[in-house]
Amino acid sequence: MMARLLTLIFALFAQQPGSPPEKAEVDWQTQSACPISEKGLDGSKKHFVDFEGQRIYVCSKQCINRAAKIPELMIASLARSGEAPESINTICPVAGETLQNRHHMVWVVGNKSFAVCCKKCARKATSTPATYLDRLEGRVKQTLCPISGDQIHRHHFVDLEGFRVHGCSEACLIQIQSNPPTAFAKLAQQKVVLEPRAKTCHLNPREKRNTKVFVTRGAKRHYFCCTKCQGKWLAKQVTSKVIEESAGGALDFLGGSLDGGQR
Hints:
alpha+beta; 3-stranded antiparallel sheet
């Protein structure tokens, strides 16, 4: 079953950055079904989750809560069906200007896309897509201590799980070190995104990371050397009990209910 799972995940990410900035490598279709229940969408499309400038439609309020916990995997589910979420940004994330039209679309990281105001912005966005997906999602660099909520001090920091986390005092650093999951969770609530210290692939440290192949989950960004590693890592996230409970039976497209631990 795991072999089948990995095969499916790898297929989702076979088409990745490297195309011209305004041309998708795949002719993605409009979303037609809920990625949680797999039921067809009603005409109103009133239930949805927004993530990184992408709108993921679901069939009910119950599915909103489930999809919101794992938006990356919901988008991956659509990719396997040859579908893309709806691009909804109204501001160019590069120039900060209100969009007059959607003539210039940037396709990055599989079936995600967003509109920019001109060809110059399209080239910029394609070179460093993470920067502009952060802007669309409202993610920021760390400025506040996850313990006290006060301004961080540049001399107070600790390296945890490959990321540098700042605090406002030595006392707060001790608390951060004693309970990293809580610290990362609070940073995620603050919409903070942390860049990894290593310049190598998250899954294969022997390889240099590709800054166009990544997944941002919570406060952590993970880069990979290739789409195969990205897909393999995502497959491990699918086996998480937390994710399985969030998605319920909707992971049938990945081989059904799975057991395992989260990385």
